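4.2 Preliminary Data

To establish feasibility before requesting continued support, the project team ran the inverse folding procedure on a target of 276 residues. The structure was first converted into the token representation described in Section 3, and no sequence information of any kind was made available to the design step. The complete token record follows.
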């Protein structure tokens, strides 16, 4: 009956490799001296460069099993770094995209035998605590039929306007005191609920078709915030407005559009009936 395969530490593997190189021992002789199987000795000799890299990296030399192979560790680390940068830009990432990037990194590193299998992907996600979640946001509320209809009609709608007279504006809320709603914690630590600050500013951004940006419209609660105590409101690089709820109102929007109208080139109001 064949004996159970003996698990060797990195230090023991290096001893075998040194013997094979210095004393020119045969694989059979090395297997007999270290009481291991011939196949195991062959694998050690075949992967000696990988073992040397692990030895030079300073990992636990007495550890019986390495957590990851050197090739896999390099690819995993590069995938994780790329993933973090992509998520910082809010780029949606699928399983297939991760596998594609892993193959690219493997080719770049010269690892020809790497295969980005589903098994590798699941282990990679587990190692770096990455979960797959649905994306929530305003885009899900957009009707695709409305988008297609608008796209078809946009050319006729813009007929007669110059590019510098075509604007796009959108609002965004800035919760300047808000903390993240998720956090890293120790496993033994309890994650209790916290009260999140809802203090915010409302900001309207606007630019024309020639990429010329208009001054942003910022709406706060105070007519003169403490932070602007010694600054003239008219000297700000943005238009400051205020109301109790820091929200856009019909009056504020009307004033802003009127100001934009007077500062921009005159619209063909006779044809399109532009009014404020």
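Position-by-position output of the design step:
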């Amino acid at each position: 009956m064949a004996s159970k395969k003996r698990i060797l530490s990195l230090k023991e593997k290096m001893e075998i490799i040194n013997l094979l190189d210095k004393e020119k021992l045969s694989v059979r002789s090395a297997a007999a001296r270290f009481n291991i199987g011939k196949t195991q000795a062959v694998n050690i000799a075949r992967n000696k460069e990988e073992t040397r890299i692990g030895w030079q990296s300073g990992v636990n030399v007495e550890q019986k099993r390495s957590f990851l192979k050197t090739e896999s560790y390099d690819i995993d680390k590069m995938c994780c770094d790329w993933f973090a940068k992509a998520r910082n830009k809010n780029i949606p990432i699928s399983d297939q995209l991760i596998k594609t990037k892993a193959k690219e990194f493997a080719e770049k590193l010269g690892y020809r035998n790497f295969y980005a299998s589903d098994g590798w992907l699941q282990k990679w996600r587990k190692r770096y605590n990455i979960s797959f979640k649905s994306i929530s946001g305003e885009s899900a509320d957009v009707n695709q039929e409305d988008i297609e209809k608008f796209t078809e009609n946009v050319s006729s709608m813009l007929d007669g306007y110059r590019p510098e007279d075509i604007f796009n504006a959108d609002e965004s809320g800035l919760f300047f005191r808000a903390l993240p709603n998720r956090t890293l914690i120790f496993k033994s630590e309890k994650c209790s609920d916290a009260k999140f600050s809802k203090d915010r500013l409302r900001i309207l951004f606007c630019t024309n078709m020639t990429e010329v940006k208009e001054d942003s419209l910022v709406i706060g609660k105070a007519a003169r915030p403490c932070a602007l105590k010694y600054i003239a409101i008219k000297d700000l690089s943005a238009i400051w407005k205020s109301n109790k709820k820091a929200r856009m109102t019909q009056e504020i929007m009307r004033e802003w559009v009127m100001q934009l109208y007077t500062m921009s080139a005159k619209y063909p109001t006779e044809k399109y009936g532009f009014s404020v």
